[in-house]
Amino acid sequence: MGVRSALVARESSWRSLSGGGKKLIKMAEAKEVKLHGFWASPYCFVVHHALKLKGVAFESVEEDLENKSESLLKLNPIHNKVPVLVVDGKPLAESLVIFEFIEEMWKEPPLLPEDPYKKAKVRFWADFFYKKLLPTVYVMGECEDEAQQKAAKEFKEHMSTLESGIQKDLPSDGPFINGDKPGLLDLIVGSWSGVFRVDAELVGMAELVEKEKVPLLHSCIASFSDHEVTKDLVVPHEKLLNHVRALREKALASAPK
Ligand SMILES: N[C@@H](CCC(=O)N[C@@H](CS)C(=O)NCC(=O)O)C(=O)O
């Protein structure tokens, strides 16, 4: 094969991998990818896993959230939070916004369904998770007594709503919510599963995600920690527990008496 035909063959195999000439250019343009994150942040894990699953090479930049760097404040001047993804010097904040960018930029493997209605349903349940479920996770971590127990009860109710909603809108044979491979909802639920275990301990329950009550979400979490790509980011339970306890002490000390 001559040089020219070798180049053409390589280009066309890239094209078929990435689905077209335009995408080939985009991929070739994306030279430097940096993820500013924090070791205990599930929001950052979602982005990390999406990049890993798509085989994108990136550098992780660990941020100190107690003493935020000038660069983080510059990269995310609106929220001052991680994750921030920087692609060729251009920053993007907010985990779900970053996820959509990654999904658009690096097509393979897709982490959202192709069907527009199903895609919208995945986004609906992701939004439900962020808006309805996560507030109860924070209350369990930061409050005591009645407020904490109430949040644990609400958490379980929302998990049941999520389970039945997904079963109805996005039926699959598992073991992931997305079927045999993880998708966005798996990344979200799997990324938060360590915090769920920590919160269970804080509220004095053996488990917050019960196999009998939410079998699909339970199966997603188990498969996530076994999967060849996503298992790389399992934070040791004691380490996360100590971190959440320290945040809890701070929140309790500053709560109005
Ligand atoms: N809505 C944001 C939330 C990100 C977030 O809360 N990040 C936390 C780490 S888990 C953070 O940077 N906290 C620093 C602060 O609140 O000052 C997202 O989805 O990315």
From TrEMBL:
Pfam families for this protein: GST_N (PF02798)
Domain GST C-terminal positions: 115-247
Coiled coil: none
Boundaries of every GST N-terminal domain copy: 31-110
Protein's GO biological process: glutathione metabolic process
GO cellular component, one term: cytoplasm
Record keywords, A-Z: Transferase
Protein EC: 2.5.1.18
PROSITE patterns registered for this protein in UniProt: GST_CTER, GST_NTER
Superkingdom assignment: Eukaryota
Alphabetized InterPro entries for the sequence: Glutathione-S-Trfase_C-like, Glutathione-S-Trfase_C_sf, Glutathione_S-Trfase, Glutathione_S-Trfase_N, GST_C_Tau, Omega/Tau-like, Thioredoxin-like_sf
Reaction catalysed by this enzyme: RX + glutathione = an S-substituted glutathione + a halide anion + H(+)
GO molecular function: glutathione transferase activity
Protein name: glutathione transferase
Gene source species: Elaeis guineensis var. tenera
